[in-house]
Amino acid sequence: MTSANESTDFPIQNLPFCVFRTDHDETARCGVGIGDQIVDLPALKQAGIVKGSAYDALQLSCGTTLNELMAMGPDASAQLRQTLSQLLRAGAKEEPVIAGCLVPQSKATFSVPANIGDYTDFYASIHHATNIGKLFRPDNPLLPNYRWVPIGYHGRASSIVISGTDFHRPLGQTKSPDADTPTLGPSRRLDYELEVGIYMGKGNPLGQPVPMDSAEEHIFGLCLLNDWSARDIQAWEYQPLGPFLAKSFATTVSPWIVTMEALAPFRQNWSRASTDPQPLAYLDADRNRASGAIDLVLEVLIETAQMRANGEAPVRLSLSNFTDSYWTVAQMLAHHTINGCNLTAGDLFGSGTMSGSAEGSQAALIELTSGGVNPVPLPNGEARSFLEDGDRVILRGWCERDGACRIGFGEAIGTVLPQSQGKL
Amino acid sequence: MTSANESTDFPIQNLPFCVFRTDHDETARCGVGIGDQIVDLPALKQAGIVKGSAYDALQLSCGTTLNELMAMGPDASAQLRQTLSQLLRAGAKEEPVIAGCLVPQSKATFSVPANIGDYTDFYASIHHATNIGKLFRPDNPLLPNYRWVPIGYHGRASSIVISGTDFHRPLGQTKSPDADTPTLGPSRRLDYELEVGIYMGKGNPLGQPVPMDSAEEHIFGLCLLNDWSARDIQAWEYQPLGPFLAKSFATTVSPWIVTMEALAPFRQNWSRASTDPQPLAYLDADRNRASGAIDLVLEVLIETAQMRANGEAPVRLSLSNFTDSYWTVAQMLAHHTINGCNLTAGDLFGSGTMSGSAEGSQAALIELTSGGVNPVPLPNGEARSFLEDGDRVILRGWCERDGACRIGFGEAIGTVLPQSQGKL
């Protein structure tokens, strides 16, 4: 196993899960990333070298999604990762057998790794909420509930697509401030939103809230998520019931799910500024204060069609961190279930656009450009107020800390294709 | 087949679909209602008397949900209904065989008839939108987008339950206007909302809007839907991203899906008042103007714990009609997909609370009581501002018209249990 020792997002400390297929075998199957390879989990089961409870977990990883494994809770995936960690160490006697179960990532086609029953989008960066609030409600940017309620809304699950899936600029109804009536046309204020995706593991029954202390036992792992947004459609449609068609044309997720276990070295304490209210008791726990935050660096890059044609590398648009979240993943989950709402294995949360307070940490164009007023200059002389056809947006994420091995999240990539609907 | 000839919701002109099980056989299976019986579709297939394309449709009706049949589009269910109609007519020679495939409805336990991938809740009664708007925004009751945009939002699919499923009063964060800070507690303003549910049939691929002319080919049928709502949670959480935990604790659907074919005799023309704007072209079609509306009577009844204890019959709270909808089902569907959003067989739309303009047609307590200010008196001396523990809400719907046989929707029933969460 040399590949995992080089600089990679996927050292042996990471072992993220995915679902993939190859040209050779078109059946989707579950895998685990190591270096530039994927361990084909059904093939590993077939090889017969895994026994005991790790074998039980492997048996749950032989479908076309990870839902069955997710539903078993954190012990199952932990046992599987522990066994893989032993099998994949340099010089392990099983090396020849494992080698037969590896598929190069370059030969894999990934798919959305879970059957996502419900998708919930939170709004957990107070910096994003304030920046957006200023644009939509200049007199009232941050609403009174924000510091008390982990604000979220239900999103569209069917239009969640895997990284690499391009999509057409959406048609929609918009109204310019000086027009009397709305019109139908392609969105002219198309944006990305960098978010952290959070996959549910073990579910909870309807009517039974999950308390803070056990909230993380219901989380399978994290990914990157691009909540593409048509700002002009959103501005016209969103009152009073929230965003709808402004978001439901495409949401991109990265192929890899990084487990909570792999993220353990990158946890840090969570606290509230003395000027902010302390959370209500159902959103508070010692464990959350001690280690609720996750030090995950988040980056957005853009590659325009012109850059691609000229062979120029993508350029960074923003750099932020999941520690900029006002609410932790445990708080999101405890809040989501406090009314008895049932979560199901494979459900997905989005964190909300993860903007920081620093210059250059605004994780959507609408923030970077102050609502499209100040276009972002690009090194090749182009500039962007909002996304243009051919623009490719690349999300990256990684964790690094002294004394711990760096782990990465891979990428979530999508390219905007021109609007081209059939006749309507 | 005598049962269908009596006064019933399910004459041979209806033939609605459902999913059920019995004590005798706990496997969920698809059925069709006739009188007080259900045709067990897998049993009918087994009986071997159905041939041709109706047999193909029957083969798709042998799973634990109706999704496969739904996905085939309206021809498949139409062929099956046509064949059933012939087999079930009085004196048909297949009567003895069919009799062996019947299960009394009184012995059936129903389940949610589809795997609902995504649930979208519209807001299609302008009367409801105005009544609610007055309470939440007295200065601005009907927002400027309402007459142009079929307003909708994504709802929670996992907490959709079948009629008869009781649920606990939800816990949630609320803030009274005179308090400085919010508190956690059981909702004190629990309400129902009478809606029409709309199940998708054949889906559309991501990126391909469904035009108005073919919108109804993507609809499998209608049901009754109770969008239970915690008004105090809603008021505190809903800005800026819409309702979330105020709705996601339970949504009740009726067991029966009445097909668009069965509703054909009850279609009527759709038009806009001259004082309202005409819809944009993508929401307009001759077919929609000619027959877009559906004359479906809708009723809400309440049975309190005290009424139940005293053996008193449920009493009517409201009577309205689906013709009160400002938008047709075709318009909802065309709008939902205009941005390229993909619908999937089994997806569910709610119409939004279907209130009319007349006194007694307000289809939620918050409207009937002007926000809880004027309690509704009940004949037994009780009164209701909002729902109390033990209250049972019953939704009914039916179509009747001179020259057409009356068809019914059955009932959607739910009972409020006291709040009783585990320790948090």
Describe the structure.
The structure is a homodimer. The termini of chain A are far apart. Chain A has about 425 residues and is of the alpha+beta class. In chain A, a hairpin with a 2-residue loop joins strand 25 and strand 26. Chain A is globular, with a radius of gyration of 22 Å. In chain A, about 55% of the residues are buried. In chain A, helix 2 (about 50-60) crosses helix 4. The longest helix of chain A has 15 residues, at about 75-90. In chain A, about 20% of the residues lie in helices and about 30% in strands.
Poorly predicted tracts of residues of chain A: 1-6
Oligomer kind:
homodimer
How helix-rich are the residues of chain A, as a percent range?
10-25%
Q: What is the CA-atom radius of gyration of chain A, in angstroms?
A: 22 Å
Break the fold down into its secondary structure elements and pairings.
The structure is a homodimer of 424-residue chains.
Chain A: E1 17-22, E2 29-34, E3 37-40, H1 41-47, H2 52-59, H3 67-71, H4 74-88, H5 95-99, E4 102-104, E5 108-111, E6 119-122, H6 126-136, E7 152-155, E8 160-162, E9 167-168, E10 171-174, E11 183-186, E12 190-191, E13 194-200, E14 219-226, E15 229-230, H7 231-237, E16 251-253, E17 258-259, E18 267-268, H8 286-291, E19 293-294, E20 297-303, H9 305-309, E21 315-321, H10 329-337, E22 348-350, H11 365-368, E23 376-377, E24 383-384, E25 392-401, E26 404-417
Parallel strand pairs in A: 6-22, 8-16, 9-26
Antiparallel strand pairs in A: 1-2, 1-5, 2-3, 3-4, 6-7, 10-11, 12-15, 13-14, 13-22, 14-16, 14-17, 18-19, 20-21, 20-25, 23-24, 25-26
Helix pairs in contact in A: 2-4
